[in-house]
């Protein structure tokens, strides 16, 4: 055939098959099946990460804002929707109209859904608490500063800072916080 770099021999293949049939391969496969497919995997833990919420624990104020950040950056309306009570209202001041604009939870979710779908990247950084009043077990008043970067595509990006005033409520100690109002005081 002219090419000596590749030679095909049925005799070589038959020797390999005999070795695999009577040799080490059945033992190795048996061990993998007996002990599982990955000998380097840790032991099974039935509780797993049940007590750890990696995206943010909304039963704490800091965890609420961590979940807010993650749901925004992941652009996930399912996570985002958990942050708002059914009676939620969003408010901002429109400088062009000279008045406050307000909408309900359904409108907030619709606007956020469209935002999340139309952009490539969102980065939200919550900064310091300007005000944090959690003296009541079931209600918190919070003013917190933030930086927000939104990249729509290679040519269009928005960057802004601001403060958000939240009123959070929960059913009781250890229950998740949900916003009932959010006043956005940003430079967008």
Describe this structure in words.
By secondary structure, this protein is of the alpha+beta class. It has helices at residues 10-22, 24-35, 61-74, 77-81, 105-118, and strands at 84-94, 99-104, 121-133, 139-151, 157-169, 178-186. Strands 2-1-6-5-4-3 form a six-stranded mixed sheet, covered by helices on one side.
How much helicity do the residues have? 25-40%
Number of helices: 5
Rg to the nearest angstrom?
28 Å
Which percent range describes the beta-strand content? 25-35%
Termini separation comes to 73 Å
The assigned structural class equals alpha+beta
How are the strands of the biggest sheet laid out side by side? 2-1-6-5-4-3
Largest sheet: 6 strands, mixed
| DSSP strand tally | 6
Q: Extract low-pLDDT stretches.
A: none
Mean pLDDT: 85
Outline: elongated
- Helix and strand run: HHHHEEHEEEE
Structural descriptors:
single chain; 188 residues; alpha+beta; 6-stranded mixed sheet; 5 helices; 6 strands; 31% helix
Give the secondary structure arrangement, pairings included.
Elements: H1 10-22, H2 24-35, H3 61-74, H4 77-81, E1 84-94, E2 99-104, H5 105-118, E3 121-133, E4 139-151, E5 157-169, E6 178-186
Parallel strand pairs: 1-6
Antiparallel strand pairs: 1-2, 3-4, 4-5, 5-6
In brief, what are we looking at here?
The protein is of the alpha+beta class and 188 residues long.
